[in-house]
Automatic annotation (TrEMBL):
Keywords: Membrane, Transmembrane, Transmembrane helix. This is Uncharacterized protein. The chain crosses the membrane at residues 130-152, 164-186, 206-226, 254-277. It comes from the Bacteria. The keyword Membrane applies. It comes from Oceanidesulfovibrio indonesiensis.
């Protein structure tokens, strides 16, 4: 078992360092910009009938789909950030999940634009705008709630030995590597399916379902090294937050934003309760 944990650390740490390099982040940003512009160009070419038939059938004719593409690229990066955050702490990983949910709601707001003509005209009343307002407002509430949630993080002295702490973090790194493998395998499979069928696939719905199981596994792993009731309750509560996020993604308009706000509110209340009721009492704010 120790060899597996050592291997996980040996593989994870260089990958994490490579991902966090400024050069890597700049390269990803440039790739996102390039793909967005290529998407716009492809849509315009399709509108003018200049694309070959196999490509034309997969390319939309509304420029607003390029916005959906842009948010999809940003969300893919955020999901990888989430996976690399897992070994840090469960609370930070949950915070990253809320960041992704807020971006998904904003993306959903922009997705409504495909129902409008170019340029935008509102001739049938404000009805078509209401889903945009709901998703945007939900994203804003989650953004504010995330700021409050982040300020509630506290840093507590670990009672574990150096060896136990290493094994705990290494186990989470192993889980993160497994999630990375699932992320890429699901992404490739759904990408190929989308190309074959011409329909987008619910990638983030599937990935959040996987996160529910990974959070439960994290609860069990944490109970191995942090067997106290308060820690187990807090980590289980964070798994409930992930469940609420997953339900928000599967819910119809208006309910998705409401469940998202409920999830972040629950996480805030859970963190407040843990900070003040845990046996070691209030601690300094986590950096």
């Amino acid at each position: 078992m120790y060899r597996i944990l050592d291997w996980a650390t040996y593989v994870f740490d260089p990958l994490h360092a490579l991902w966090e390099k400024p050069r890597t982040q700049r390269g990803i940003a440039l790739a996102q910009i390039s793909l967005f512009l290529l998407g716009l160009a492809g849509i315009e070419l399709n509108r003018r009938g200049l694309l070959p038939e196999p490509v034309a059938t997969l390319t939309p004719t509304s420029h607003y789909y390029a916005i959906k593409l842009a948010f999809g690229l940003v969300l893919l990066k955020e999901v990888i950030d989430l996976v690399f955050t897992l070994p840090c702490s469960m609370s930070r990983a949950v915070g990253k999940q809320f960041e992704i949910l807020a971006l998904i709601l904003l993306r959903n707001a922009f997705k409504e634009l495909v129902h409008f003509q170019e340029p935008i005209e509102i001739a049938d009343g404000i009805g078509p705008v209401l889903p945009i307002i709901a998703d945007a407002a939900g994203a804003l509430f989650i953004f504010v709630g995330l700021g409050i949630y982040s300020r509630l993080h506290v840093k507590r002295k670990s009672s574990k030995s150096a060896g136990a702490l290493y094994r705990f973090v290494a186990t989470k790194k192993l889980l993160a590597l497994v999630l990375l493998g699932i992320f890429f395998s699901v992404g490739v499979d759904m990408g190929l399916t989308a190309m074959q069928t011409g329909h987008s696939q619910p990638f983030f719905d599937v990935f959040y379902t996987v996160l529910i199981f990974s959070d439960i596994l994290l609860v069990l792993i944490s109970s191995l090294y942090l067997p106290s009731f308060h820690s187990t309750f807090r980590n289980s509560g964070f798994a409930v937050s992930t469940l609420l996020i997953r339900m928000a993604l599967a819910s119809p308009r208006y309910w998705d934003a409401l469940l998202g706000v409920t999830a972040v509110t629950f996480a805030i209340c859970l963190t407040l309760a843990y900070n003040y009721l845990a046996p070691d009492g209030p601690a300094g704010r986590e950096e």
